[in-house]
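Shipment paperwork, digital attachment
Item: protein structure file
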Amino acid sequence: MKVCGFTFIRNAIKYDYPIVEAIQSILPICDEFIVAVGNSDDDTLGLIQNISADKIKIVETTWDDTQRKDGKVLAIETNKAFKNIPKDADWCFYIQGDEVIHEKYLPIIKKGMEKHQENKLVDGLLFKYLHFYGSYDYVGDSSQWYDHEIRVVKNNPNIYSYRDAQGFRKNDNEKLDVVEIDAFVYHYGWVKDPKSMQEKQLNFNKFWHDDKWIEDKVEMVSEYEYEKHVSLLKKFEDNHPKVMQERINRINWKFEHDISLNKKSLKDLIKRTLYKIGINTYYTNYNKIKIK
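Attachment content:
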């Protein structure tokens, strides 16, 4: 069984993306790894080149900055990496620049690949998500956060990155048939120093909206105010991936949230109640199937 990881990145240093940690977190179970490095305002290319691993192949790309609707450019860049995966790979392991896999899940993921490698009914593997917010001590606990997504797919030329690169589709806009595995993706996209977070907000929204929308909707402040935008959170009681420890030790800002002040909206309460009795009202970008 051959596994090839893939990702895309641009301006990783400028916006403080944990892309090195993301790559290193899944590298142990990848035979090769494709990184599409976009034209950057910093030394992102050098950052990736300095990862000491012969498995990594860099593809230099140029982003189309005129693509400012629905995050389409993110899928375009993902597909550039995807198309460079060698044909002899069986599985393709996708990781975004702010996502990290805990080492304890690697055996589970590998086992899932081995189990479903020859099953033509299975297009990919579905992961659970933890979305960290404000600091490494809190995770999102409301329905605004997506709770599952596909991160491992078969090496099928009919599969492609979809919309804003959050998930995948096949053929003519068909959802993938996937099997859920007991593994989490740790999403750190909302954990940055407040200055970097604000800069990211201003830049990232350009992939979805025009300048007028950004001017009207995004606060023009020097630092992102986590407390002002906080939603339901819960305390994270487990440990973080080993590859994240150095980054966590460098944290230079404080964010505290009183969990007792959490107030679930009626929408959240209804969705959670229905989910408990087997009715899923959350948006799903996939078909979840069960294989004995």
